Amino acid sequence: MRLKDSHDLSGLIRFAETDATWRPRLAKVVDEHLLPALEEFEIDFEDLAELLGEQLPWTLWGCAFEDFISRRYGKHGLSVVDAYLARGKGREGAAAREYMLGLRDAWASLYEVSEVIPGQSMKLRDLIAGTAPVTVTEHSATQSLNIWDRIAARVVPVGDHHVISGGLLIYPAAASELLFDGLRQVLKLKRGQDPKLVPEKLQGCAPLFSNAWLFSQLPGLLDPQMPDLTNTDGDDLLFCELRFPFTKGVQQAQIADMLDRMPELESCGAKTWDWLAATTRRKPGKSGGLVIGSFVDGGTVLGTITLKGKALLLNVNSRERAERGKAMIQAVAGKLLRPPLTAIQTAQQVMRDQQSQGDGRQSDGEDLPPELAREVLAEFLDNHYHAILDQPVPVLGDKTPRQAVRSAAGRKKVVDWLKHLENGSARQPGTPMANYDFSWMWDALGLMSERQ
Predict the structure, then answer these.
(1) If residue 116 lies in a helix (H) or strand (E), which one and from where to where?
(2) Could you give phi then psi for residue 192, rounded to 5 degrees?
(3) What is the C-alpha separation between 342 and 240, in angstroms, rounded?
């Protein structure tokens, strides 16, 4: 008779859902994981499938079931696994029993992925228990996880290796902060202090992981809103193109000569100039919003000027910059240019246009071959990041990365900043960005020991 797969819990689940002693205990644990969010947002478990997709609600249920497995009941401290195996239920082999017992003793925690070998393994660092990094054997999740992703999961020892349990939640930044805030309240810590719990204490915190994840995800799904988008000046994002027609008899060469003599502009290609800010210092965007900007070694790019046919085109990303750019150009152009015509698009309109084009966009024949594109981008990023090591970075308190690493607090901020850069790059599969190697930056800043 064929034995079940070593990680198959179907027999144990069936026992827990039908046994008169264990069924109400399981229901209580599931409620602890799901009920606070379901009640807060006035939805049912069935509604989660429409909001999250078919799989994630059952992943959340699996998180609750794994928590239930780890709980002890009665004066003898027995778990449902002990009861199930003692009664000889099912036809599990030795490997399956070992997995169940390992899952019983494992704890849920927030892990950071510090290394990924797709289809084989990944290295995880426990951000709460502070235990030594562990390499887990994993096939499916490693196909979609990236370096510095965070996951809520249980690491289970099986024989001479470790695996992760099926109840795995990918944790975005908002969920991580919500979880840490909850743990800080429980531990009476100040904001900014990292919560630390020994594994034994973490055993009782498992519902926090499901609740923090749900409370961070459901508001945006139930009431999706476009985040506030600003440029680096703090202006609302609005894409403006100003078209200045040449006056009669004016040639491109005259306008190009005028643009070359403007100190605010820097030539960046044939008939193209970057309009640069006088300083790289950036104003904060709106609270909770996204700041969008373009940068070159010379500083922040406020706009781009292009000569096309018998017109000068100025492209900027806010109404305020459009007015400044218009005044700047008209002040030096005199009668060479006519008053501009302005076309405006919101960020939402731009994104809708891009989505409507979809994958059906045709190449204009000028695209670089993929190998050359990767080479060009890698060189650009090398130059950009070498320069930024000596430039003020707002998230580092307007210190340069080299300055920030000189203090313990600054060092931690730089580590978080590097992880953010590397994770964001890795999350662009199919692009040259995805394979960019950031290790040299860690080494240049003396932080390789932190890249674990």
Answers:
(1) strand 108-117
(2) 100, -20
(3) 7
Tokens representing 373?
């594109």
Residue 238 phi, psi (nearest 5): -150, 120
Per-residue DSSP letter, 362: P
Answer positive or negative: Cα dihedral of 99, 102, 104, 110. Answer: negative
* Cα dihedral across residues 389, 393, 396, 400: positive or negative: positive
b/e per residue, 36-52, with b = 16+ CB within 10 A?
ebbeebeeeeeebeebb
Query: Can you give the three-state secondary structure of 21-52, one letter per residue?
Result: CHHHHHHHHHHHHHHHHHHHCCCCHHHHHHHH
Cα(340)–Cα(287) distance, integer angstroms? 34
Integer Cα distance of 401 and 403 in angstroms: 5
Per residue in 399-434, pLDDT tens? 888 998 899 888 988 888 888 888 877 776 665 566
Question: Which segments in the chain show pLDDT lower than 70?
Answer: 1-6, 89-91, 224-232, 279-299, 347-381, 428-434, 452
Q: How far apart are CA 30 and CA 82, in angstroms?
A: 20
Provide CB contacts within 8 A for 204, sequence distance 6+. Answer: none
Q: What pLDDT does 361 receive?
A: 42
356's tokens: 């409507």
* Short-list 386, 368, 359, 375, CA closest to 435: 375
Q: What share of the chain is helix, strand, coil (3-state, %, to 5)?
A: 45, 20, 35
Helix (H, G, I), strand (E, B) or coil at 128: coil
**What is 161-180 written as a DSSP string?**
EEEE-S--EEE-HHHHHHHH
33 vs 63: CA distance, rounded Å: 8
Residues 6+ apart with CB under 8 A from 74: none
Q: What angle do CA 417, 419, 424 make, to 5 degrees?
A: 100
- 407 and 401 Cβ atoms separated by less than 8 Å: no
Residue 232, burial from CB neighbour count under 10 angstroms (0-12, 13-18, 19+):
buried
